[in-house]
Design goal:
heterotrimer; A mainly alpha (358); B alpha/beta (436); C mainly alpha (301); B: Rossmann fold; 7-stranded mixed β-sheet; 13 strands; C: 301 residues; mainly alpha; 12 helices; 0% strand
């Protein structure tokens, strides 16, 4: 009833090809963006902004990068955290050594460095497929982390190897408070998500999907394997690099290799799988689940123990959280293997019909 | 599905964030780790600190009537969880965060300074924060990595018969390949130059469960001493690997994060004779430990489930952290109002003017458990000495008295590093003489 | 013998023996992948769970053999339950989904282990001390650990037992049939689900053996779960479906890793072990994309 597109006619090709062809969708997105850009910085308190929403956005961006590679192009990769690390460290170095560039060009350049590393370690994808490729990308993960530790140039020869990220200053305006950092992150993520969506709807995206579905057939009809696969690695690594830069500059405030371990790569892969492979919305849903749910569990358990007045040993609580988290992942995969995005799609389809039965 | 999750989360947050700062309570966050590879350390330390607070509440009724409260938050030894726990507990008005992780400490430095909440990184963290002029809110209390390294070289010198006997000796530094592990490389190199010994640094990739090649290299070098700077599984693996290549464990000296029961028990017999540094001693004979047993454990309120762990190194380390925190609050109350809850800034002042001398140690019942401590604006370390313990297969035995650090070597390095940080950040160091 | 040669022999022997330990863990992966096509990332957590259960039972005072049998039973039961609860509902999903499910299983097992048995680390002794062999050490000044040789012997024994199991018993033959072609095995009347349950049980038993060996080496603590990462390059080289491949891959990885760390490591500052095995495996794959003995993947258009 509410979600009908009766009466909405398209008279130009441009209208037909919009990302959100249904007017209700456009209104909803506009409201969401308005809320995110205007309302949240005003009402959000520091905890929500700096510990929950900003990391959610950052990991959504990283999940976007991985989704482009794994979801759209079908190349399984476990080196996501390494690309984030490259982005973070190179942004630090650009801001340090070429200060007149400014933070945004530095982040873009750092993303390009991550893309270069991505291309280098994506070369094996021309020969190797499936799980073999995934395990091979672990070589990238471990090597990059080792190189960042070993060569002091990356950390400006600091004795501890941990460096603090510089202030974000754009045209003389410093982005210091959590609200400002949140807005900066939101802008970057929104722009890049839009770019990703459009990219995946273009010829490049179709080439990626062809390679994912059946690469032999794709090469038979003339899609260049090497260019397509390496482009997928490059774009994906660029996104992950920028996400890493945001992670260091807008979230943690420090840059150290230990923050970008294999554990993080797995978490981002979780976000992609649970959110929905091959779906831009899925990245956000998956990121929300993986970043917010453990915290929700932790808060709920302490709340519950206050409520019941029972002093449960914290080791028990923490281990239960781990078990519940793992169990939920398995549950999700069984119930909806296509991810949360598919659930959302089903909901939308039902909504299109409501209140009619068919 | 996600929406209802968020709704419940919002409810939970609202409930958790409701004003809990009741009158006459001082809240201290207990953000440690109870799962994962480092769980024994986190749970032991956390247990010790909470036990001490519980004892103060039971025995003394709090600090001048102000009861201590705390809330646990699982950080999993991860930076992002550590930051999230910090932000969450901030709402309750924390007093001195103990991150128990160098990585989390680094992430909190700017946040805590902006929030005016002191961070106590006792025995770890950012070493150059010992220069309180540049890091007013960060306190690497008792002893830093560089200080204890100089004390270690002094110990080795003692064992060799004098610092001049170090000339020409070979020392291997086996370290965990991480920021933590690399911290002592510069100070070792400086001492090698000063005393004339040869130092070789060998890295062990994380997590350190495979060290054969590293110890074969040690065998090739045939050093006189090996300094073990490990963490987690790297420690017992190192001792086992040393046994495998036949290197005597009595010549291996570890840092204090390689010197707990959990680090040597898995190595079994291979750990016998291994020496480690420590700034707190194990045992339940100290009067303060007896009080903890009497007022807390006998009443069934002890935090550690396994009573056998009471008095272990991590547990007493937590007790020492509890002592420092309460004494800092007491010092702050003496200045800003006895019997009132203290703000973060006031507690910071309390920590900076902490003076636990031998007399006070005796009153606290902690003589021998920890060294005397005198913190100042210039010196956020306050102590600098360590004792050395040797494992005999069943327990740690103290084999030296307090060995002081070589501040003539360490302090200039700290000040140089802190000055570089100040320059990078555009901070003006405080002028200690101008402050009260 | 000149000291350099002796040292080289020590490094090589140590590397080969370490490689056998890696292969022990890889065996579990291979078993499950061969029979059900699932890359079971939870193998590391299974190794930890097995070792921790065994050591905790010992601490409770149980007799060595009784504890061993009990743990074996637990691991087999765990395998069966996993197959039932996790795998059966996901039976036709793409490999990546199954892989993710096993990672979820890893979390569950890690939490469960520490929930049941606590988080304190334990030592484990199996009677053979981890010290150099006396007569080798004294006669030729070569240090090779007694325990490493014992572990290699156990690994060899395990492979022999598995080989006999697969070749000579009815269930083993059924397993091989399932590994070859699921459809054909079903057509011949082999109960697929039972077979998978058995395979997971056997993998659990292999995890127990690996857990014991590694537990003696490093102590039984949470970090035991990381041995899975050591086994992955072995799988790359040997192929995911081959048992002899796992052994040979292990030997290659172990030897090259140690030799590289000792001889090349100091030139670049050390610590190259973290990535060297993976890079070697990667280069290997460029030549043989399915590993030494892996099944060639035929793409039909």
């Amino acid at each position: 009833m509410l979600y009908r597109e009766a009466g909405q006619f398209k008279s130009t090709y441009a209208q037909d090809q919009q990302i959100f062809p249904i007017r209700q969708d456009r209104i909803a997105i506009a409201m969401l963006l308005g809320f995110a850009f205007v309302v949240v910085p005003l009402i959000g308190d520091q905890y929500w902004l700096s510990a929950l929403i900003t990391p959610f956005l950052i990991f959504a961006l990283a999940a976007l990068g991985l989704n482009i590679l794994t979801g759209y192009a079908g190349q399984l990769s476990l080196g996501t955290a390494a690309f984030m690390a490259v982005g973070a460290f190179m942004t630090y170095n650009f801001v340090l050594r070429v200060p007149w560039l400014g933070i945004v060009p530095s982040m873009i350049l750092a993303g390009l460095c991550a893309a270069a590393v991505g291309i280098l370690f994506g070369l094996p994808s021309l020969r190797i497929k499936g799980f073999y490729l995934a395990v091979a990308t672990l070589a990238c993960q471990f090597f990059v982390l080792w190189a960042l530790q070993r060569f002091g140039w990356f950390t400006n020869y600091s004795s501890s190897g941990v460096i603090t990220a510089q202030q974000i200053v754009i045209f003389g305006v410093a982005f210091d408070t959590p609200a400002e950092k949140y807005l900066f992150t939101l802008t970057v993520v929104a722009v890049m998500a839009l770019a990703a969506k459009n990219l995946m709807r273009s010829e490049t995206g179709r080439a990626f999907m062809a390679v994912r579905d059946m690469d032999v057939a794709a090469s038979v009809i003339g899609i260049p394997m090497m260019k397509t696969k390496l482009l997928a690695f490059a774009i994906s690594s660029f996104y992950c690099g920028v996400a890493g830069a945001l992670h260091a500059f807008c979230y943690l405030g420090t840059v150290e290799p230990e923050a970008y371990t294999l554990d993080l790569s797995f978490r981002i892969l979780f976000m992609v799988i649970i959110g929905g492979v091959g779906s831009i919305l899925g990245c956000f849903l998956g990121a929300a689940f993986i970043t917010l749910f453990p915290i929700f569990l932790s808060v709920a358990s302490s709340w519950l123990s206050h409520l019941l007045g029972v002093e449960i040993s914290h080791a028990t609580v923490s281990n239960l959280e781990l078990i519940i988290f793992g169990g939920l992942i398995i549950f999700f995969l069984i119930v909806e293997p296509n991810g949360l995005a598919r659930l959302w799609q089903i909901a939308k389809e039902k909504l299109r019909l409501w209140p009619f039965p068919h | 599905m996600k929406r209802s999750t968020l709704a419940i989360a919002a409810l939970a947050f609202a409930a958790a964030a409701s004003p809990a700062a009741a009158q006459n309570e001082q809240f201290i966050p207990a953000n440690f780790y109870w799962v994962g590879p480092y769980a024994p350390g986190g749970s032991g330390f956390g247990g010790g600190m909470i036990d001490y607070f519980a004892m103060i509440n039971e025995r003394d009724g709090g600090i001048n009537g102000v009861k201590l409260t705390w809330e646990k938050c699982e950080t999993e030894y991860r930076n992002d969880r550590g930051v999230e726990c910090y932000e969450r507990s901030k709402k309750k008005g924390p007093t001195g965060a103990h991150p128990l992780s160098t990585g989390i400490t680094y992430s909190l430095i700017e946040k805590a300074t902006a929030d005016k909440i002191p961070v106590i990184s006792m025995g770890y963290g950012r070493t150059d924060a010992a220069d309180g002029r540049v890091f007013p809110y960060i306190f690497p209390l008792i002893t830093t990595y560089w200080s204890q390294n100089t004390a270690k070289i002094k110990f080795i010198g003692q064992k060799e018969g004098g610092m001049d006997k170090l000339q020409g000796k070979k020392i291997v530094n086996i370290y965990h390949d991480s920021a933590y592990g690399k911290e002592t490389i510069p100070v070792l190199d400086a001492q090698a130059k000063k005393y004339g010994f040869q130092v070789t640094h060998i890295a062990v990739p994380h997590p350190g469960n495979e060290q054969q090649s590293q110890w074969l290299q040690v065998r090739q070098i045939r050093p006189d001493w090996v300094i073990l700077r490990g963490w987690g599984v790297m420690n017992p693996t190192a001792l086992k690997a040393a046994a495998k290549v036949g290197f005597p464990r009595t010549k291996i000296v570890g840092v204090w994060w390689s010197g707990a029961e959990e680090d040597v028990i898995p190595a079994g017999d291979a750990a016998k004779g291994y020496i480690a540094a420590g700034f707190n001693l194990p045992g339940t004979n100290f009067p303060v430990m007896q009080d903890v047993l009497k007022h807390v454990y006998k009443k069934g309120k002890g935090d550690l489930e396994d009573n056998a762990r009471v008095g272990s190194i991590y547990h007493t380390r937590g007790i020492v952290a509890g002592i420092i925190t309460t004494e800092a609050i007491r010092t702050a109350q003496a200045r800003f109002g006895k019997g009132k809850p203290m703000t973060g800034e006031q507690v910071r002042w309390g920590i900076e003017h902490l003076n636990i001398d031998d007399k006070r140690l005796k009153e606290l019942g902690a003589t021998g458990l920890m060294q005397s401590l005198k913190v100042s604006c210039m010196d956020h370390e306050g102590g600098g000495a360590v004792k050395f313990l040797q494992w005999d297969g069943r327990k740690w035995n103290v084999i030296t008295d307090w060995i002081a650090s070589d501040q003539s070597l360490v302090r200039p390095m700290i000040e140089a590093s802190a000055a570089q940080y100040a320059k990078e950040k555009g901070l003006t160091p405080r002028d200690c003489s101008k402050e009260k | 013998m000149p000291i350099e040669v002796i040292f080289f022999i020590e490094v090589l022997a140590g590397g080969l023996l370490a490689g056998v330990m890696y292969a022990l863990v890889a065996l579990g992966f291979v078993l499950i992948y061969k029979a059900s096509g699932v890359f079971n990332f939870a193998q590391g957590a299974m190794v930890f769970f097995a070792a921790l259960t065994f050591v905790s039972l010992l601490k409770l005072g149980w007799n060595f053999w009784l504890a061993l049998l009990a743990t074996l039973a637990v691991m087999v039961a765990l395998g069966v339950v996993t197959e039932r609860v996790v795998l059966r509902p996901l039976v036709n999903q793409p490999q990546i989904t199954l892989f993710m499910a096993t990672i979820g299983l890893t979390f569950v097992l890690e939490g469960l282990s520490q929930l049941l048995w606590g988080s304190q680390p334990h030592g484990l002794e199996l009677g053979i001390p981890d010290v150099p062999m006396e007569w080798l050490s004294q006669k030729w000044n070569i240090n090779i650990s007694q325990f490493d040789l014992f572990a290699a012997f156990i690994a060899g024994l395990l492979v022999a037992v598995l080989a006999v199991f697969f070749q000579k018993t009815r269930i083993g033959r059924a397993l091989r049939a399932v590994a070859d072609d699921h459809q054909a095995a079903l057509a011949v009347g082999i109960p697929l689900q039972h077979i998978w349950a058995i395979v997971w049980g056997v993998a659990g038993a292999v995890a127990l053996v690996a857990g014991l060996m590694w537990g003696v080496r490093n102590g039984v603590q949470f970090a035991l779960t990381f041995v899975a990462l050591k086994a992955l390059p072995v799988l790359l080289i040997g192929g995911f479906e081959s048992i002899p491949g796992a052994i040979i891959g292990g030997l290659i990885i172990g030897a090259t890793e140690k030799l590289a760390e000792v001889y090349f490591g100091p030139m670049v500052g050390g610590g190259i072990e973290s990535w060297f095995a993976y890079v070697v495996a990667l280069l290997f794959l460029l030549v043989r994309p399915e590993g030494l003995f892996g099944e060639k993947h035929i793409d039909r258009v």
